[in-house]
Amino acid sequence: MVKITDVARHAGVSPSTVSYALSGKRPISAETRARVEASIRELGYRPHAGARALASNKSNVLAMVVPLRAGINVPVVMQFAVSVVTTAREHDHDVLLLTQEEGEEGLRRVADTALVDALIVMDVQLHDPRLPLLRALDRPSVLIGFPADPAGLTCIDLDFKAAGELCVEHLAGLGHRVIGLIGSPPEVYVRQTAFAQRVVQGFTAAAARLGMSSTVHPCEATPAAARTVAERLLREQPALTGVVIHNEAILEPLIDAFEHLGLRIPTDLSLTALCPDELAETLPVPVTSIAIPSREVGEQAVHLLMSKLDNTPVPSATLLRPRLTARASTAPRTM
Amino acid sequence: MVKITDVARHAGVSPSTVSYALSGKRPISAETRARVEASIRELGYRPHAGARALASNKSNVLAMVVPLRAGINVPVVMQFAVSVVTTAREHDHDVLLLTQEEGEEGLRRVADTALVDALIVMDVQLHDPRLPLLRALDRPSVLIGFPADPAGLTCIDLDFKAAGELCVEHLAGLGHRVIGLIGSPPEVYVRQTAFAQRVVQGFTAAAARLGMSSTVHPCEATPAAARTVAERLLREQPALTGVVIHNEAILEPLIDAFEHLGLRIPTDLSLTALCPDELAETLPVPVTSIAIPSREVGEQAVHLLMSKLDNTPVPSATLLRPRLTARASTAPRTM
DNA sequence: CTGAAAGCGCTAACAG
DNA sequence: CTGTTAGCGCTTTCAG
Fold this sequence. Notes:
Two copies of one chain form a homodimer. By secondary structure, chain A is an alpha/beta fold.
């Protein structure tokens, strides 16, 4: 194994000069730098990660905790993970993968052993048991999702309220005046993350602001519940021409249900959804949708972490602007 | 930060005794060990990962390269990754996540900087550009999948030949005598991994051995191609009652096509497939299938790596026995 | 702009 | 069964 002293000897300089040439932490004359770089290349020198971590007190490794719960969308998690790794590499960091299963002990372990410099935690719940630990840890962290009390934490997520608004605005722009929101199962509005409520807030606020008639219906993730809610919606709002769906598991059953009730999409009824693009594109009717920008979330999460490692202050909350992709399921009102 | 000397002082022993108490690499009297453990707990001592890696020349970290190519099944990759992390943790190792994108340079980097002790490489291609590097690296590695020339490497995968045989045997057991294999797109049989050919070999060999009439049809991954191949199969083998499908992308189109042609499944036609259980279960007709045992692959890959790190010799090729799950798409022959 | 040297915290001979 | 000690390879003062 070739080490820094080998390079130093070969280049006719001291080890510290090699180190500084590598880190750029102090000025090096052009010629010296050239000589050092040549020696590094010639000898194939690679600094030993452990030695570096020990001497500098930085491992240049980030921990990333991925969720395992049922109900999460695996491709979305994967996209996010890839984006984190790619962005981390651009900042000369590697990524250690932890499973949710390891829990708090896993986070504590990698932080306390100095295996990692910072942590990214996905799928944060409203009252996540890991929050006290993350607050207490001596290493910075970024959370994907917003807990009930984000004080003392750095969080990032899609702006779900704006997403609710954007769906309504899109429908309003097409001339729709009577709309409904089909939401997640009732229990989601109680526990879990706050995002479901925020969609409702945005939806309701925008509808009121735009003078639209609107209702909200939580819905279990079963085809039977989908049929029931579709029927109920039409009974309660016979003039309904627009629907926002925030329940990706029953998107297809809902489309079926509406068509069984004699409504053509988008001729009679316009549909917009909050769901992954992958899903929206492959439905029988491609659905106008807003997706969680997983790539952007991953990128920004890493940027936030890098700032924190630099001691640059960062906002406690980062809300990403929703982007709506218009597809075949929405059209101007015809009735 | 509390270090090993702090623990040693607190317990009234030498640092090496603490180290050995932790590693178990030399006998420690019960009382001493108890005292050391008490001190460790009391002080909340955590050994510094970098210092350990430097002194012991082992980082206790494995690299795992995940694929990004289009056409890979993301949930399967995720299951595999989780299984690797979980198993690695049981062996006191962590897992560093690398993307395919980093390529050979990424592998070389984490190996040469001693960031990782060993590597797991997924989605190995027939003529994978990373093979020479993996052979040359001073750290052990395990490949998921078989390249054209596995010499000097350690590989693991489902036994695809046995999987082909097992499908045929299952159909034979139900009384079917005339069967067909609908395979992957033609180009898959040329490039990529060798697994597609091996399924064909197993299928053909078993059919011959059992005195069955059989044909093989590669098929593009489009619904149109699915319809065409279904028609052709029936034209060429009017007595056909059993089909094996090795092309998960068109499983559903194929089922539709057969039913459009007037065949009820499984009454008129029995279907078995090689595909993820997740998919087999959610098709309109749940399909009897053999899945890649991602969990087992991950586990075994880590076990192989641990053996290699221990200098225990391991087989160069590990083929996992296929397990067939019978579902609604296969039934005894009725005609 | 460059060098010398003191650690970083731990492991593993070596010595008893 | 336990202690002493010499590094592991690098970064970073301190000195010039």
